[in-house]
Queue: 3 jobs
Job 1
Amino acid sequence: MLLVITLLTFVCITLAVIGIYWLVYRPASAATERLQRLGGGAAAGGYAPQAAATSPLIGSDSSAVADLAERMAAPLHRLAPPSAAEAHKLQKKLMQAGYRSPNSPIIYRAIQLATMACFPGAVALGCALLARPLNSAVIFILLAFIAGFFLPRFILGRMVSKRQLRLRWGLADALDLMVVSIEAGLGLNAALVRIGDELKDVHPDISEEFELTNLEIRVGREREEALRNLAERTGVDDLRSLVAMLIQADRFGTSIARAVRVYSDSLRTKRRQRAEQAAQKAAVKLLLPLALFLFPTLFIAILGPAAINLMDTFAKM
C-alpha cells in the first residue's frame, strides 16, 4: 500500500509540473501573435490608450505576472465559472483591500487555484513519507483542500479589515485638515488636493483615496458621483456618512465648513466611545484566558502541597 501511494504521489506531482509548464510555455496561436504585433505597433506608433489611462494611483501589474496568473486561473474559470454577482463582489472586496488593477481578480483566482493544488499535494507527500494509512491520508488531503480554498478568502478579509481600520484612524486628521482648508478659503476640490498632499506620509491610505477622488473630478466626473465612488471603494461607515453629508450640503447650498466641523466633532465623540467600548470588552475577553490558564496554575500551586499531604496521610492509614 505504501508503494502504491508513493507511485500515485509521484505521478500526480509529475503531471502537475507538466501542466504548469504547458500553461506557462505553450505556444500562442497565430491570431494571438498577430494581435500582439498589432498592439505593439500601435504602442510604438505613439498611441497607447491603456498606458495613457493608467494612473500611478492605480496599481498596474506586470504583463508577465498577469499573463501567468490568467493561464493558471483559466482551468478554474472553466470548471467553476464565477457569476456576475460573485465577480462584482470579488472586485469590490479587492478594491477595499487596495488592489484596483483589472487583473486583480485573475491573480486572486490563480492564487486560490495554487493553494488548492499545493496544499493537498504537500499533505499527500507527507502522508506517503510517514506511511500513514489510506483512510487518514484521504481525510488529511480533504482538509488541506478545504484549507487551500478558504485561506485566500480569510487573508483577503483580514487585509480589508486592516485597511479599513487605517482609513478610519486617518479620517479624523483628514477632517481637521479639511475644516482648516475650507475655512481658509479653499474650495472642496482644492481641500481634497491639500489633504492628499499633506497626509501622504502620515496616512497614505486616506491620502490615496482623496487623491483618486480628486482625479475623478478632474477628468469630468460629477462631484457627487466621485464622492459616492469614494464610499464604495473604501466600505467604511464613517466615510459613507461623510460623503452623504457633503453631498447634502453641496445640494442644498449650506456651509460645507460648518457641516464638516460638526461632523468632525461627532466623529471625535464616536472614536472616544469606541475606545471606551473596547476597554469595557477587555475585561470580558480576559475571562477565558484566566479560566483556562491562570486559575488552574494557581490551584495547583496552592492546593498541590495540601493534596500531597492528604494522599500521604491516607496511605499511612
Job 2
Amino acid sequence: MAKERLLFIDLLKLIGIILVVWEHIVATYQWKNFLFYIIIPKVIFLDMGVLGVALFLFASGASLAQNTKINNIGDIPKFYIKRFLRIYPAYWTAIILCIVFSSTLLQFNFRNCIELITGFQAYLADFNGPLNYAFWFIGLIICLYLIYPILDYLFKRKPHLTIISLFFISLFSRIIFNEFNNFGMDRPVEWFPLCRVFEFGLGIYIIKIDFYPHIVNQSALIRWLGNLSFYAYLIHVPLIKYWVYNPFFFVIILMLFASMLYSFDMQIKKYYSTQLAKH
C-alpha cells in the first residue's frame, strides 16, 4: 500500500526544478547571476543550479526512506530493478526528444553512445556530454541508488553517527578534489557520489528520525508538478532556446513535453510492473 504523499517533498522537487532551469537560462544568455559562498570557498559553493540539485537529492533521499522497505538482502535486487526502471526508460526517451530538438548535426562515436546509454558522461570525463549537459545527474543519482541499501542499514542502526559521518565524508571529498586540482576530472564536486552523499543522506535521516513536516499533499496541482519535475529536468535544456522568443511559451512547451514524457513513462512502468508481478 502506497504511503500518502508528503507536501514538503513535492515542494522541494518543484523549487529544485525552478532553480535548475533558471540557472541554465541565466548561463545560456550570460546574464548576471547571484553566487553564494558558504563556510569554505570553492569547497561548499552554491549557485541556484547547485542548490536546485541539492534539493532534488534531499527530496530523493527522503522519498526513498519514506516509501522503500529493505528488510533483508533479498529485497535489494527488487529495489535496484525498481529504481533503474524509475530512471532509465524516461531518460532514454528524453534522449530521443533531445536529439529531435537539437540544433546541431550529431555525430556519435562509440564513447558518446556509452555515455548516453548509461548516463555516466561525467564519469567518462565529459561533464557536458555529447547532447545534453544536464544528463550528468543520471550517473550521480544511479550511484546514490546503488549505495542506498548500505545507507538504509546504517541509518536504521546509528542515524546520528551516520549523518555526521556523511557530512565529513562529503566535506573531505570536496577538499581533496580541490586541493589536488580535481585529479584532471571535470567538476567532480558536482557528480562524484561521495561529494553529494550528505544531501542525499540528509533526506533519509530526517525520515528515519521522524523529524519532518507530516503535512500530506492534498493539492492535485502540486502533486502533478512534483511528478513532472524529473521529466522537466530531462528535457529542459534543448528547449531553453525558446525562452528568447517568449518566456510564457517556453514554460508551456516545457510543461507539455514533460507531461508527454511523464505519461509515456507511466505506461512503461505499468507494463513492467505487470510483467514483474507475473514472475
Job 3
Amino acid sequence: MTSLSVIIPLFNKENDIVDTLTSVYNQTFDDFEIIIVNDGSTDSSIKKIKTISDPRIQLFSKKNEGVSIARNFGVEKASSNYVVFLDADDYWHPNHLENIFLLISKFPDNLWFASAYEKQRATNLITPMGSPIFKKGKNWSGEIDDFFRNSFIDCLAWTSSVCMKKVFFKSLNGFNALITHTEDIDLWIRAALKSPLVFSNKITARHNLNASNRSSKKQLQERKYMDFDKFIGEENKNSSLKKYIDLNRYSLAIIFKLYGEIDTFKKLISKVEVNNLNKKQQFLLKQNKFMLRFMFSFQKLLEKMGIRLSSF
C-alpha cells in the first residue's frame, strides 16, 4: 500500500494539467499514487495526460457532475489511508508531500493536515497566505488551537494543500455533492468542528488564481452555494466561527452585488454582524455595482503591475 493517494479532479485544464503533474513528479517524497478523475472534459486534457507514462497514474473518466463528486469519487478509488488533494491548475513545491508526510509521522493520532501556501495573482505577483499563525515562525508546525480565528484573512485549509485521513474524510461524508461553489469552505468548517487541524508554516503549495476561469453572471446564477445558516447553532456558541462565516458571507455578497444580484446580496448581508468587518469592508458594502466594478478592475490592473491591494 502506498503512503499517500493524490486526488486530482480534472475538467478542461489542457493548458495546466501537464505543469501540475510535473510538480507532482518533482516531489522529494515519492511513495504515492495519482488518481485523476476526468469529470467530462471536452478539451485535450486527456490526450495530454496519455502522453505521460507512469504506473502511479490511475485515470478514471465519468460524466460531468462537478468537482465535489469528482473528488469524492477519487477518494473511493484511493488505496492509501491518507488522501491529498490537488486541483488540475495548481502547483506543489518539491517538498510538499515530504512535509505532509512529516506532519502525519509527528502527529499520527490526528485526522487532517495542511501546509501553508502562496497565491499566484498575476504573472509577476505571488503573495503568501495571510494568518496570525505565522507569528510562531516559518518552521513551526503543530495543532491549531482555534482554526477559525487563524483563518480570518486566508483560510488555513485550502484544497491543494490539505491531507485527510481517508476514514475521517468519509466520516464527514466528503464534499457536499449538492454544492458546486464554496464546497471547500463547507468541508473545512465541518472538519474543524470535529477535529483540530495540524498545520505547517512552511509554504509548499501555490494556488494559481491567474489560471482560474472568469465567472459570468450566468455561471454565478447556476452555481449552488453552501448554506451558511446551517451552522447558526454553532455560530451562536463560537464567536470565532461567527466571524469566519460572516467574512465568507461578506465575500460572497460582494460578488453577487458586483453582478447586480441585489436580493441575494441583501439576504447574505442581513446575517452579518457588521462589527466583524473592518472599515474597508464596511466601505465596500456601501458601494454600488458600478463603483465595485471599477475598483475591482483597478485592483486587477495593479496586480498585473505586481502591486497587491486588499480589503485587509
